[in-house]
Structures are given as C-alpha cells and as structure tokens.
Model the fold of this input.
Amino acid sequence: MLLIYQNPATWRDLPEPDRQAIMSDAGALMAELTGTGEWVGGEALADPSTARSVRVRDGVPAVTDGPFAEAKEQMVGYCIVDCETQERAVEIAARWPDARLWGMEVRPLLSPDGLEM
Amino acid sequence: MTTPDGLEDLLRGLAPQVLAALVRRYGHFDLAEDAVQEALIAAAEQWPDRGPPGHPKGWLITVASRRLTDQLRSEESRRRREEAAAEPGLPATAAPADEPDGDRDDTLTLLFLCCHRELSPPSQLALTLRAVGGLSTAEIARAFLVPEATMAQRISRAKQHIAAAGASFAPPPAGEWAGRLAVVLHVLYLMFNEGYAATSGPDASRPELTAEAIRLTRAVHRSLPEDAEVAGLLALMLLTEARHPARTTADGSLVPLAEQDRSLWRPDLIEEGTGLVTGALTRGPLGPYQLQAAIAAVHAEARAADDTDWPQILAVYDLLERVAPSPVVTLNRAVAVAMVNGPQAGLDVLATLEGDDRMARHHRLAGLRAHLRELAGQPEAALADYRLAAQRATSLPERRYLESRATRLAGHG
Done:
C-alpha cells in the first residue's frame, strides 16, 4: 500500500496550475498502472480537518475533531498496487507527484495466507 | 462459471483441445483464446437446458471458429496484416486435429506457449489458468485477490507479448526442450503454492488453484510418463495436499507439521504420491522435485511426529543441497540437522545464512533460529528472535503464530 502524505497548508497555497499538474500526473500514473495490470485500487481522503478521532476508555467513547496524530504532514489518500517486489512499489511511490513536495510511505500488506511451518 | 460440476469438468477438459484446434487452423493465438472463452460461456449457458450436444468438442470448435472468423473479417485491414505475419509461424508438421494422441500433446504444447520466457511468473500463471485451465478472468482475479480489470489487463498484455515474440504453436526444438519444461513445471509449482498458502478468507476459489495445478500436472505426466521430474512434482503436490485437512484450525491458525493430527491426512493421496516418487527415483535422473517429494513421503510415513526418520530426511536434504542449492534448502536442512545432531548443530547451519542477502532479513530465518534457541535452552535469545520474526512476517497467520510463541516464552521467563 502506498500512503500519500501532504501538508494541507502548503497544498492550499500552491498556485492553481501546480495543483492541476499534480492531479494530472497522478491520473496519468494511475492509468499507466492500470495498463500494466498492477493497479488494485485507491481512494483520496477529504481534508484532515474533517477527521474525527475515536478512543474508547473504560467503555466510554471519546470523539474529538481532527486527525489522530497532530502533524504538519497528514495522510490524504492511499493506493494499493500489486507488484513483484517492494523495490518496484518504491519506484512507483517515487513517481507519485506528492513525493516531490511531501512524502509517500510504502507498506506491504499482510497476506491472509501462510505456508505451514 | 455457475455450471454443475460435471459440465464444468467437461468444458475445462475440452478447453485446451479446442484452443489448439483453432490455433492450428487459423493462427492468432490471442484472438483464438478469446473466441474459445466465448464459446465456453455460450456452452455453459446453453447446455444445462438443452443438454450437451452429441459431439461437445466439435460444437465448441464450430462456435469458437465462427466467432474467430467473424472477428477476423470485421478487422479487414488488420486481418491482411496479421495473416501475412502469422502464416510463416504455422508449423508445417502440426498434427491434424483428430490424430489419436493429439489431445494430450496439445495441452503440453499450450503450456509451453503460456509459460513463455518473455512473461513474468504472474503473467505465465494467469495465462495458463485461462488458456489451458479454461478458468474465466473473473475466477482468476478472485483467486489472486485483484480486481477483474487488473487481471484482464495482465492476461491481454501477456498475449500481446507472446504475439510480439513471434511464438508459434509448436513444441520447442529439441535443444530447448528441457529448459522450457523446467519453466512449465515451475509455473505449475507456483500455482499449487499460491492455492496451498490460502488458509482462510471468503473466496473458496483459492483451493481451486491447488486442484487446477494437480489436474494440469497430471496432464503433463500423462504426456511424459517417463519424465522423473514431472512425476516428482506431481508426487510432491499430492503428498503436500494430503496434509491439507490437518494444517489449519477452524479459525484459520496454522498448525505446524509436528503438531498436526495425522489421522486427518489423506491416505489415498499419500499412497499415490509415495508410489509416484518411488518409481521416479528408481528411473532418475535425480531432480529437486523428486527429492522434495521424497522428503514429504518420509514425513507421511511417520504415524506420529516422534516416529519421523530424521536421519533419512537429512540424507535427502544433503542430496538436495548438492543438486539444487538455495538458501531455502539450507534453511530446511538446518531443521533436519537439529533433529539429528541437536539444536546447536542446527544453529551452526543457520549461521551460514546470515551473510546471505536473500535470507538474512527473512522472517523464517529468525523464526527458526528462535525455535532452535528455545530448544537449546536460550529463552531470552529465543524471545528476541520470535519478536523479530513476527515483525518481519508477511502473512497474518504466520505473524499470529510467531507472536503467540513469543508471548508463551515471555510468560515462562
């Protein structure tokens, strides 16, 4: 899974053409990955300010506004790719436009399967 | 396909024969493959109501041929271009469609084509399941847990690669035969493992991958009954599949070999697998599939884990390491060394793997080291290794298993 991180404040302050270039670069890369048969799926997330965090303590849910961890960079979306190696996934992440301005995190998914030991 | 089992078996068995007949007659492997899929779908829709026709294979060839020629005609300019390109590729010595032994060799020839060297293993697997196994793209996508569109793209790219490589529908030349057969066997082996690794989940189709791998390997064995490695691979699959009912608990947790309830193992598969590998080993030449099957057969022989003939297993691993050395073989051999000569001897073997880039970061190395350190009376070192192995595990059941070992050890320490 490729986790996409952005700083929402810098995203807002980007000139419109820059924002559009990022969107179209991401769209082109998604189309390319669909073509190679590596694209599995992905979603963009709404602004972190719309997040609500939920913690249950002693059976009582406490709900607060805002993301779970306060940080300048927030997760704004994810995609899942099916690649032969983790190196290939890192290569894709490096081409994701957000990586140029902010950062991407590549995390292998745990498979539900296992060979006997 | 939502068809009764008997009909599905019939259609899937005929699929490679129909495809072979079309490719021989018209060339155009990629278009012919699409046409055969359409004919299979038409049959699955029509036969349950009307009953299968008198000559099912002839019916499928007729329907698929019509689809193919329709498509070729509708792409007039492309047709001319493609026919010019395809003609020289058609083998002049191809057997006529009705030659007695043609059906069996057709399956093998198609396997050679689908397991083309230009393709990556996932593409080889997907194409083999569709063109030789007769599975639909949706079924294959479910088996590999990817969207249908992704799998459709993988298959169509695989077919384009084959067309671009100028591959023809003919058995490989004598000089390439052994190398190409090795690729086919490897793809079948991967197909089996892909299905065998599935322990849970809503999709009942993953165990179908093991069934399909066994069915196709049986077909190759029928074509090449004298080949010892083909027999060895089939034996390995059967002996592994025999343990399937005992290898998971109801909640999907993995049960290690030593703790499995052996009364659940399937005696029919053990008998067939043991017979196959025994015959193959006497014929030779030795190969890695036969040796792995021989190890599985020794395990299958033991009524209880404590009865396992470890010296014999170690002797076969020594051979395997000479015939086909790999870090995975060394890792498994370390288990046998530990069982014969004690945990410290096993740890010494593992130490030779720490410098191996392919293995040093693998969770199985840390997991096994943890187990042997536990046996050697080093609980603290074992605990650290169990935790390390759990962090590195790539599958949920394996991580759960390693975490529970760590927790148990921490409780005792």
